[in-house]
Amino acid sequence: MTDRSKGGARVPASAKPAGDDLVASRRRFLTGGLAAAGGLAAAAGAARAAGDPAITELPDWTVYPGDGVDAAPYGMPSEFESHVVRRDVPWLTADPVSSVNFTPLHELDGIITPNGLCFERHHGGAAQVDPAEYRLMINGLVEKELVFTLEDLKRFPRENRVYFLECAANSGMEWRGAQLNGCQFTHGMIHNVMYTGVPLRLLLEEAGVKPNGKWILPEGADASGMTRSIPMEKAMDDCLVAFKMNGEALRPEQGYPVRLCVPGWEGNMWVKWMRRIEVGDQPWHHREETSKYTDLMDNGKARRFTWEMDAKSVITNPSPQAPITHGKGPTVITGVAWSGRGTIPRVDVTIDGGKNWYKARMSGPSLDKSMHRFYFEFDWDGTPLLLQSRAHDSTGYVQPTKEELRAVRGVNSIYHNNGIQTWYVNENGDAENVEIS
Ligand code: MTE
Ligand code: CO
Questions:
Q1: Topology of domain 90-303, per CATH?
Q2: Of 406, 404, 389, 414, which is closest to residue 266 (Cα–Cα)?
Q3: What is the pTM for the complete model shown?
Q4: Given this structure, which CATH class describes domain 312-434?
Q5: Residues within 5 Å of ion ligand 2 by Cβ?
């Protein structure tokens, strides 16, 4: 409480004006508001304790012993968390075998996505691969064509790295206007996981890439194959051949037993169930399936080779699936930001549709090509809000507005929509996906 009543001690971290001095008076308001809110929250807490049955009655779990160990050899979340699940949008695709579901971003915190909540995107269903029969072949323009078993792969030096994977189509339904009501659906084609794997470079060096080997074509063992052309420079740089996610084996739906990680680049290149890597002297873009991720522009031309994911952010709470339910007073805004080109040193937040911007407080590890977590604490006076967040990445790039994006790219594309998201929050705390110009 002491810190809050001083106000100044608490406010600078979260409510610093973003880059200029336009919010001096607003800042004083926030300072005063937070001090008052601290006192109110304490009073409300004391009053509640007096007649609260959750304090005065003994619940069963206090009286009787609970389950012993081994009730669940593989632990599951609390039954009270059963609403925290991946969800799909039924009208989006014709068949679940070639479809997508979405990470419940509004239910998560920190930067790591739990394995069971990582969104899934399959083009031919999820292959169930027996690890004993798993093989990875490297062929094409190499000195020695090689075949590895899973055990062979685990004899190479391995690395642990945290990366986001974002589908190029994330937010793709929002190009023409606000459409889906929830950050799970507008932004949930992303997950952020610690991978354990062997640098692809080590395997390619083992095979010996010939001087004219300039591209690789990784191929999946699933019904879609999902071959993708990747330049040798990227393959030799930071790609990982991963077999663990968040410490345990990859989940079947994420490519068990082995997937390719292509850090910072669009998700479709992260080939799951990877069984073969062909080395070639040119891309395989003439093959329909390796060239379809292009961005159609207004003039009928298409952008190609747009592999790097631009910096992006979204406020996850509050949001349409996660309204403010506590009424006015101290309120925490939080969200995630990421960039395919580095780290996120800064995120700005506005609560009034961009009239005033504040620097959000970053918390948690700031890792290359990984999700970052931001917070903005303020005292809500109960009036409607227009919430937005704006990411800055370590190259100096600033996340554009949707209007700025459309001015350059038109609205024909599905892919690479990294425009600023707006949530409208009404007096009751309910949030809605909107756009403001
Ligand atoms: N790899 C294979 N073999 N088959 C696929 O259908 N889908 C791609 C990519 N790798 C796919 C694949 C696409 S478009 C994306 S966005 C990511 O995998 C999704 O990875 P996830 O299912 O782990 O979220
Ligand atoms: Co994808």
A1: Sulfite Oxidase; Chain A, domain 2 (3.90.420)
A2: 414
A3: 0.89
A4: mainly beta
A5: 121, 167, 267-268
